[in-house]
Specification:
The chain is of the alpha+beta class and 303 residues long. 62% of the residues lie in helices and 11% in strands. The two termini are 22 Å apart.
């Protein structure tokens, strides 16, 4: 019986490559949060306060993302974290989801409670702050867009910024509608719309986080296709116990048992199977066990 694994690893995990961009987005967001909250409190606008609350969530989420990328690259000195600390980024994304759910839920409840009794707000201040917020959000989106395709951690921050951009547009729309119609209720309606949008984005990101923590097969990788490709390797008679999951964004892992045909070269089987996983599925870290056809020990496994 033979077992082995590929030693190829990404030079740097996905989130770490975009740490400087996360830091820039964090600085922009933190600075604008202070401005928007102050103007929201002075003007009495729920839309501004709700968007500031979401900005506060962004500050925390982006800060957590930065800390997570630092932790993920830190070497383990205990010898017990055999997979390193890469999952820290996934936990940071989970924290972002919880923050988004909390902020969205609070604003939704507060907005509904104000229906029918909307206070007078300073619509001009809403337009100015909304425009400034949109400019900062667009800049942050440009910083994080490329990283959102590779890193779940960065994607969480990117989703937060998208929600903020929508909030800024909503604040501007509310200010304009109040000026045109004279109806203060638009402030509350826009705040509720922002809350619903935030909650929907939180659910989308939450499903992705749970898929990683639940060790589901990574998006775009079909376990049946992996098993079929391994089974087509020369010298492989049977494939079983195939497991594929994501350690964190851009770092997929696989294990499998390969039953070799009679007289097959186990070393050749191992090398060919490793190449299939690397070249066809982008799985750089795979642990493969090659078994002779006469081996039946794996049948004793109860799960």
């Amino acid at each position: 019986m033979g077992a082995g694994h590929s030693h190829a690893r990404p030079a740097e995990h996905a989130g770490g490559r975009f740490r400087s961009r996360l830091a820039a987005a964090f600085a922009l967001t933190a600075a604008f949060f202070v401005v928007e909250l102050a103007v929201g409190l002075v003007s009495g606008s729920l839309a501004l306060i709700s968007d500031a609350g979401h900005m506060a969530a962004d500050v925390v989420a982006l800060g957590a993302s930065l800390v997570a990328t630092r932790i993920a690259t830190r070497p383990d000195k205990t010898g017990r974290r055999t997979y390193g600390s890469y999952r820290a980024e996934v936990f940071a994304s989970g924290l972002t989801v919880l923050i988004m759910l909390g902020v969205g839920g609070y604003v939704l409840v507060e907005g509904l409670s104000r229906l029918g009794q909307a206070p007078v707000v300073a619509s001009g201040a809403m337009l100015v702050v909304g425009a400034l917020g949109l400019a900062i959000n667009v800049a942050s989106m440009a910083l994080l867009r490329s990283g959102s395709k590779d890193s779940l951690n960065v994607r969480g921050a990117y989703f937060e910024v998208i929600a903020d951009a929508a909030g800024s547009v909503g604040v501007m729309a509310a200010g304009l509608l109040i000026i045109v119609t004279g109806q203060q209720v638009w402030d509350v309606l826009v705040a509720v719309a922002i809350a619903v949008f935030v909650l929907v984005r939180a659910c989308v990101l939450g499903r992705q986080v749970l898929a990683v923590l639940g060790q589901h097969a990574p998006e775009g990788i079909d376990p049946d296709a992996v098993a079929a490709s391994l089974g087509a390797v020369g010298g492989v008679a049977q494939v079983h116990d195939v497991h594929v999951w994501a350690l964190t964004s851009g770092m997929n892992v696989a294990t499998a048992h390969l039953v070799a045909a009679e007289l097959a070269d186990h070393h050749a089987v191992l090398d060919a199977a490793r190449d299939v996983l690397q070249d066809r599925f982008g799985i750089a870290h795979a642990t493969l066990q090659v078994e002779p056809a006469s081996h039946h020990g794996c049948q004793d496994l109860a799960w």
